[in-house]
Amino acid sequence: MEHYFTNNENLKSEIKKLSYSYDNYVFSFLSDNGVFSKERLDYGSRFLLETYLRKKKSDPTSFLDVGCGYGFLGISISKILGVHGTLIDVNKRAVHLTKRNIDANEVDCEAKLSNVYDDVVDKYDLIITNPPIRAGKSVLLDILGNAKDHLTKNGECWFVMRKDHGVKSMIKTLENSYICEVIDKSKGFYVVMLKNKENSLTNM
User: In 3-state terms, what secondary structure has residue 183?
Assistant: First the structure.
């Protein structure tokens, strides 16, 4: 089995076209073998996006989509909110697809290759991610635990994870560094918002 967080230059390409609509916005995405949820838009990602759009208290001025796949989360947020997004993935094919999908959907985004935050230098009001569970706990902790280093003072990290993938124990671990809030639950998925504990305490 080819994992979506690895690179296989010899993997055969089978482009698929997926569509998504939210309110009056219509999106088109190209997916392919070797990327996450290639056959259909993942329910967890849609739940994360739609929960964020419903529950956010303010619009970000910039955001980072970590593990962007073919760009569903970042492209949708950028177009709906009219904000600039940076979309990163370790998978070269995913980044290539994301660049094509950015152009097709005419959004203000950039896509680049990065192993988690290795090539991230800026800070963002929002980091959003549907983290790659199969990459293992150390990768998940890298993505979620180190998000605080790339958030602006009042920035937030939003993520989605299933109950049976250990979201409760992950929250318990993250509570050492963050104020953690479960925003919504659906079909075993939890949408969680993280705020840097140190910054939140200084604002009280």
Answer: strand
pTM of the model: 0.91
Q: Closest Cα to residue 45, out of 175, 194, 179, 158?
A: 158
146 vs 141: CA distance, rounded Å? 7
CA–CA distance, 89 with 114 (Å, rounded to integer): 6
C-alpha distances in angstroms, 183 versus 37, 53, 162? 24, 12, 13
Tokens of 150: 């790339």
Could you tell me the domains of the chain? 43-202 (3.40.50.150)
| Residue 37 C-alpha from the chain's centroid | 13
Cα-atom radius of gyration of the chain, to the nearest Å? Answer: 16
Residue 10 has pLDDT above 70, yes or no: no
